From TrEMBL:
<dbReference type="InterPro" id="IPR023049">
    <property type="entry name" value="GlgC_bac"/>
</dbReference>
<feature type="binding site">
    <location>
        <begin position="186"/>
        <end position="187"/>
    </location>
    <ligand>
        <name>alpha-D-glucose 1-phosphate</name>
    </ligand>
</feature>
<protein>
    <recommendedName>
        <fullName>Glucose-1-phosphate adenylyltransferase</fullName>
        <ecNumber>2.7.7.27</ecNumber>
    </recommendedName>
</protein>
<dbReference type="InterPro" id="IPR029044">
    <property type="entry name" value="Nucleotide-diphossugar_trans"/>
</dbReference>
<dbReference type="InterPro" id="IPR005836">
    <property type="entry name" value="ADP_Glu_pyroP_CS"/>
</dbReference>
<keyword id="KW-0548">Nucleotidyltransferase</keyword>
<comment type="pathway">
    <text>Glycan biosynthesis; glycogen biosynthesis.</text>
</comment>
<feature type="domain" description="Glucose-1-phosphate adenylyltransferase/Bifunctional protein GlmU-like C-terminal hexapeptide">
    <location>
        <begin position="306"/>
        <end position="409"/>
    </location>
</feature>
<dbReference type="Pfam" id="PF00483">
    <property type="entry name" value="NTP_transferase"/>
</dbReference>
<feature type="site" description="Could play a key role in the communication between the regulatory and the substrate sites">
    <location>
        <position position="66"/>
    </location>
</feature>
<feature type="binding site">
    <location>
        <position position="171"/>
    </location>
    <ligand>
        <name>alpha-D-glucose 1-phosphate</name>
    </ligand>
</feature>
<comment type="similarity">
    <text>Belongs to the bacterial/plant glucose-1-phosphate adenylyltransferase family.</text>
</comment>
<keyword id="KW-0119">Carbohydrate metabolism</keyword>
<feature type="binding site">
    <location>
        <position position="106"/>
    </location>
    <ligand>
        <name>alpha-D-glucose 1-phosphate</name>
    </ligand>
</feature>
<dbReference type="InterPro" id="IPR011831">
    <property type="entry name" value="ADP-Glc_PPase"/>
</dbReference>
<feature type="binding site">
    <location>
        <position position="204"/>
    </location>
    <ligand>
        <name>alpha-D-glucose 1-phosphate</name>
    </ligand>
</feature>
<dbReference type="InterPro" id="IPR005835">
    <property type="entry name" value="NTP_transferase_dom"/>
</dbReference>
Amino acid sequence: MNVTSGRLTSRTMAFVLAGGRGSRLKELTDRRVKPAVYFGGKTRIIDFALSNAMNSGIRKMAVATQYKAHSLIRHCQRGWNFFRAERNEFLDILPASQRVDESMWYRGTADAVAQNIDIIDSYGVDYVLILAGDHIYKMDYEKMIRHHVDAEADVTIGCLTVPREEASAFGVMAIDEKDVITSFLEKPKDPPGTPDDPSVALASMGIYVFRWDFLRDLLTRDAEDDNSSHDFGNDLIPEIVKNGKAQAHRFEDSCVRSVPGAPSYWRDVGTVDAFWKANIDLTDFDPDLDLWDKDWPIWTYSELSPPAKFIHDEANRRGNAVSSLVSGGCIISGTEIRRSLLFTQVHTNSFASLEGAIVLPYVTVGRHARLKNVVIDRGVHIPEGLVVGEDPEEDAKWFRVSEGGITLITSSMLARRDADS
């Protein structure tokens, strides 16, 4: 079937997989799932997948949750509650709720969809777009769905172009001259190059497009297979590559850029170092990720808060911020801030200094504190005079210091420090 007119996104639902913890973010996911982790001063990670769907014209969405989902569910209820059922729009939350069997939670990414077949049936859609809810990027899904239909594929997989030497960390596609996938390799030691450029490989983004009738049948058969791990990457995709037609869709063909010719931007902020760097990069003079683009906005829940406030103008006690992002509700009282990103309602006190700091909401920084290259979790109270980022060995006694030298600070870490002092 070759459809040549009309927006395909109007006949598509987006199914966002948001149940995984994201354990490489360490204590940042102790209380929340990875897609609910804060990013960029105002947003959560999941907002990027949802905003891409919204901006692409998709008005039917579902978010499958499992691990510590309260923060994510609350965020979606508050920030994504503008859909109107009378216009056939919705965003449904689908927690793992033992709907199929009282002993069965979501067993894998494919099973998370399979357990909700009856719900998807009720949406009356032709296409299903499977999305990971834990990456930072801008993408026009309409272009990918159009590619899928025009290629008459059974599945179309969103792919990143990465240097071959870096591709071993991904699921990698071997393709022919028409970008048809000939094999799917999970984290290969020697990734295959592409026909047009052997120095690069195509890595899976965890984004898949299916016709719903095709996927429904595939999921039903997979659910009955006791030898399956019920996962798209491990089971369903290799099956289609072997017995059907799997098409690769290159991210650069549908990446949304604010400036023509700009490099495509995609980040997996799955480690403390990657999370810190992606946030800090936003403080650059001309960041690669444009959060100011009104043509492709990142929708989110915006808490009502007053403007940021900077107070005191005395020697060694001047509230100022250079090359930094400071969100609403922040009070910068006699603190020097450089190359940092402060979320909502952060309050800092006199004679403190922050450099390379990612500070999540509702943090208080005490007087004379000096913090460098840190990530501070939500609601932490930094005690007066605390120094972090100058002595890694001392920091590691109380806090988590990453391989890249970034120090993660949480309330429980400070409580242990206080108890041992």
